[in-house]
């Protein structure tokens, strides 16, 4: 009935990865393609005008704007902020149900089944990148047909956050396992990285010294967000200029 | 003192009942786009914050699935398996990707143009085919949206898990019935014994 057992299946194991991201702020044009792509990929609900005005809008990735100088001589800096997948995450320590936990790949995972909606994690997160479903998500027809079947739809009362597109990681791993090979650098990307027109976002394995993201993380432009909190973020920001001077001199 | 203790016990009982009932009273559940009510190959056509009935909500909350589903055609699995058809003949793609396919009426008719054409169930099938319709099969195996599970068939079959471990022995079945509970304990037991990942994000995302 079932297909015959394949030999050597047990001998092959995928290498354990340490997923991370690099964000090149010098390249970011603030186009927000990553925000749109994230919404489409991860079934993130739009909450409407009224709820958004109360600060309940959900964007797993958002663009922060910083203005330098005064009007005629003004510079705008864009900073895409997503979950930093901290190695020492403040959100994990406060969760009473272990819905927010760290998995072996170093991802800061959110398990919706366990979440009871205390919102402690959102309060603990210094990057403010955890979002609570204050209302039940709804999609007007026919928008419900664009929902991604690989990602579960979260209901009211559940905290949600960036997953580094874990559904794409799993799909790539399953395909690689089928072909009995290791994942290649840049073989797949989260939706935000894939959609970035200037390649400001780079995703990959931080444990692989050859990967693009680990080389960028060692760049002399590299810095972390709020490094003094000791959260050990896995997202590296690259910027030439004031920030670089502050942290490296 | 005695009065205080009994009041305390009543408070606990009320609180316990309330904590079980509250999810149905307060929250509407999301109709996911992989719901069971419509045929499996048709998306349900609505995904809104609709309020489901109390009973349906309770069933979802406790993970109770209907054991048997009334199918439009009483499809006898055992006859097909006995005649030497492997599962993948009709449920194509099951060893490759995420989901197993439900065969279209045209697939059935490749054989049933000539085989057993006088049987009443085959006549039903033929009438669907003549009208250019698909057979409105109803889904037997599925998870509630609140389970937040993403299941892939491919890796399980490549790891040598037999179809009958989860779907029952189809050599004895007529219409497919949900035999195994397929709850998380069922999955995790097998994952543990085979020393594969039991990380939450292996399945839940």
Give a quick rundown of the structure:
Chain A is α+β, with helices and mostly antiparallel strands. In chain A, 22% of the residues lie in helices and 17% in strands.
Task: Write a structural description.
The complex is a heterodimer of chains A (249) and B (205). Chain A has 249 residues and is of the alpha+beta class. Chain A has one domain: Alpha-Beta Plaits (2-Layer Sandwich). Chain A is built from eight helices and ten strands. In chain A, the strands form four sheets. Chain A has a four-stranded mixed sheet. A two-stranded antiparallel ribbon of chain A has the order 2-3. In chain A, strands 4-5 form a two-stranded antiparallel sheet. In chain A, a hairpin with a 6-residue loop joins strand 2 (62-68) and strand 3. The model of chain A is unreliable at 1-9 (pLDDT under 50). Chain B is mainly alpha-helical and 205 residues long. Chain B folds into three domains: 1-64, no CATH class; 74-99 and 141-205, no CATH class; 103-136, no CATH class. Helices cover 40% and strands 0% of the residues of chain B. Chain B contains nine helices and no strands. In chain B, helix 1 (2-26) crosses helix 2 (54-61) and helix 5 crosses helix 6. The termini of chain B are far apart. Residues 21-49 of chain B have low confidence and may be disordered. Classes of the chains: A alpha+beta (249), B mainly alpha (205).
What does the radius of gyration of chain B come to? 22 Å
Helix content of chain A: 10-25%
- Tell me the series of helices and strands of chain A, N- to C-terminal: EHHEEHEEHEEHHEHEEH
Compressed to H and E, one letter per element, the order of chain B equals: HHHHHHHHH
- Most extensive interface, chain pair and sizes: A-B, 39 and 46 residues
* Main sheet summary of chain A: 4 strands, mixed
- Structural domain tally of chain B: 3
For the report, how would you describe the main beta sheet of chain B? none
- Tally of strands of chain A: 10
| Dominant shape of chain B | globular
Domain count of chain A: the total is 1
Strand order of the largest sheet of chain A: 8-1-10-9
The whole-number mean of residue pLDDT values of chain A reads 89
What kind of oligomer do you see? Answer: heterodimer
Strand content of chain B: under 5%
Helix content range of the residues of chain B, please?
40-55%
Structural class of chain B: mainly alpha
CATH class of chain A: Alpha Beta
């Amino acid at each position: 009935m079932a297909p015959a057992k394949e030999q050597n299946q047990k001998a092959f194991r995928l290498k354990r990865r340490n997923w991370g991201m690099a964000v090149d702020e010098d390249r970011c044009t603030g186009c927000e393609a990553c925000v749109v792509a994230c919404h489409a990929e991860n079934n993130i609900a739009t909450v409407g005008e009224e709820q958004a005005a109360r600060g309940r809008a959900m964007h797993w990735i958002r663009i922060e704007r910083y203005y330098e100088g005064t009007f005629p001589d003004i510079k705008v800096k864009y900073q895409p902020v997503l979950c930093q997948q901290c190695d020492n995450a403040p959100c994990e320590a406060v969760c009473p149900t272990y819905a927010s936990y760290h998995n072996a790949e170093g991802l800061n995972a959110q398990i919706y089944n366990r979440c009871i909606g205390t919102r402690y994690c959102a309060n603990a997160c210094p990057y403010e990148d955890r979002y609570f479903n204050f209302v039940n998500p709804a999609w007007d027809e026919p928008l419900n047909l664009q929902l991604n079947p690989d990602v579960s739809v979260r209901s009211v009362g559940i905290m949600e956050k960036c997953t580094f597109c874990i559904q794409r990681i799993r799909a790539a791993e399953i395909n690689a396992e089928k072909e009995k090979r290791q994942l290649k650098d840049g073989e797949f990307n989260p939706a935000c990285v894939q959609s970035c027109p200037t390649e400001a976002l780079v995703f990959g394995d931080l444990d692989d010294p050859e990967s693009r993201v680990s080389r960028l993380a060692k760049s002399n432009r590299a810095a972390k967000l709020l490094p003094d909190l000791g959260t050990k973020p896995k997202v590296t920001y690259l910027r030439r200029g004031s920030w670089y001077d502050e942290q490296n001199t | 003192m005695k009065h205080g203790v009994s009041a305390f016990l009543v408070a606990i009982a009320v609180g316990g009942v309330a904590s079980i009932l509250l999810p149905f009273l307060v929250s509407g559940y999301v109709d996911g786009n992989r719901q069971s009510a419509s045929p499996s190959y048709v998306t349900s056509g609505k995904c809104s914050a609709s309020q489901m009935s109390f009973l349906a909500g309770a069933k979802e909350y406790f993970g109770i699935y209907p054991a048997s589903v009334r199918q439009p055609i009483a499809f006898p699995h055992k006859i097909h398996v006995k005649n030497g058809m492997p599962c993948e003949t009709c449920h194509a793609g099951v060893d490759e990707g995420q989901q197993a396919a439900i065969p279209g009426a045209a697939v059935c008719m490749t054989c049933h143009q000539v085989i057993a054409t006088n049987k009443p169930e085959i006549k039903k099938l033929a009438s669907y085919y003549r009208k250019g319709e698909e057979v409105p099969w109803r889904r037997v195996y599925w998870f509630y949206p609140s389970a937040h599970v993403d299941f892939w068939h491919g890796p399980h079959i490549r790891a040598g898990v037999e179809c009958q471990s989860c779907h029952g022995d189809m050599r004895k079945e007529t219409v497919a019935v949900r035999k195994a509970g397929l709850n998380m304990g069922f999955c995790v037991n097998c994952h543990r014994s085979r020393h594969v990942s039991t990380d939450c994000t292996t399945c839940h995302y």
